[in-house]
Amino acid sequence: MSFISRLRQASLSHHRRFSTLLSQDSTTPLFSKQKSRAALRLIKAEKNPSRIVEICKAASLTPEAHLDRIALSVAITKLYESNHFEFIREFIDDLKSRPDLRTERFVSHAMVLYGQAKMIDHAIRTFEQCDELGVTRSVRVLNSLIFACILAKNYKEVNRVFVSFPKIYGIEPDLDTYNWVIKAFSESGSTSSAYSILAEMDRKGVKPNSATFSSLFSGFYLEERFEDVGKVMKLMEKYGFRPGVGTYNTRIHGLCKLKRAGEAKALLAGMLSKGMKPNSVTYSHLIHGFCKEGKLDEAKKLFKEMVHRGCQPDSNCYFTLVYFLCQGKDFETALEVSKESIAKNWVPNFSTMKSLVEGLASESKVTEARELISVIKEKITANVDLWNEIEASLP
């Protein structure tokens, strides 16, 4: 019995439950965005793989809508993590049978979903099925297949598809094609191979853009090939590019990952001396970099400077700082930063906050620890029993 047949014979109670959840009442269906949000919420909470697919089907999710794409991505990730590859294949094949989804957009997205699940053979089969699906094998579809291979970290297949498929199917690569291939080289530790791609781009009259150089910087920093970083800077000049904030952020991130935050900070000074305005990403990379090196005073200074310059920290920046401050036993500052984060409805994870509560208690700040627990329980209903136990154990 096929997967779809099994779904059709699934419990009627399940069908009614999901239908009810995806509608406001029996007569008033949810608007499209509301339905997508409801489906996403249910998918995130559901553990049963067959019910995850039921939710997707009940909500009629398609890649045409942004929220639907997110929901489908979450569903495929959960099915992949639970090793339900046959569910993924039969579910996507069922979507292919829908006449309204026989489009370039759907085929492209289906291959990306297969890439997420590391099912590249099925992504390639989908590309080869374009004729029977009534879809033209455009460069956009080719680029989606290459992106799927990158998601699956199958870099050998990226190279095979790039070298063979344009010739076999008569597709002319564009800038996005070349950028994806360069990204694959940079992720796989063979960034120097990208020079041949740049030469081909020159021959074809395709000019690189900021994404091209960003991948090159990331790759060469990952491989600690600093001479090549200098070459890329010269290439940017050759093509008339001035390094912008994005370029600096990529370089700062690369240095911070190598635990060379001091050099990364020198790049920030260079930005400021040129009158460039760093953004929150710039500071987040630096704060994370200094935290990883145990230089918490420098990280705290940068956090203050960030806010002073009008750059708003995101949730990850707050979480990173609170975590490392707790590791460094600076519980007082960690409490201040966590309060600011929680006020924005960003609550660090349970283990980090438990570490902070216990740290405050160890420094005889039990009142502050209890107040923090109270605020956390107001914001998040999960782990309430665990927090009650921790609170009861406080002196």
UniProtKB/TrEMBL annotation:
Keywords: Repeat, Transit peptide. The keyword Transit peptide applies. InterPro entries: PPR-containing_protein (IPR050667), PPR_rpt (IPR002885), TPR-like_helical_dom_sf (IPR011990). Signal peptide: none annotated. PPR repeats lie at residues 174-208, 209-243, 244-278, 279-313. The keyword DNA damage does not apply. Gene3D superfamilies: Tetratricopeptide repeat domain. PROSITE patterns: PPR. It comes from the Eukaryota. NCBIfam families: PPR. Belongs to the PPR family. P subfamily. This is Tetratricopeptide-like helical domain containing protein. It comes from Trema orientale (Charcoal tree). The lineage of its organism: Eukaryota, Viridiplantae, Streptophyta, Embryophyta, Tracheophyta.
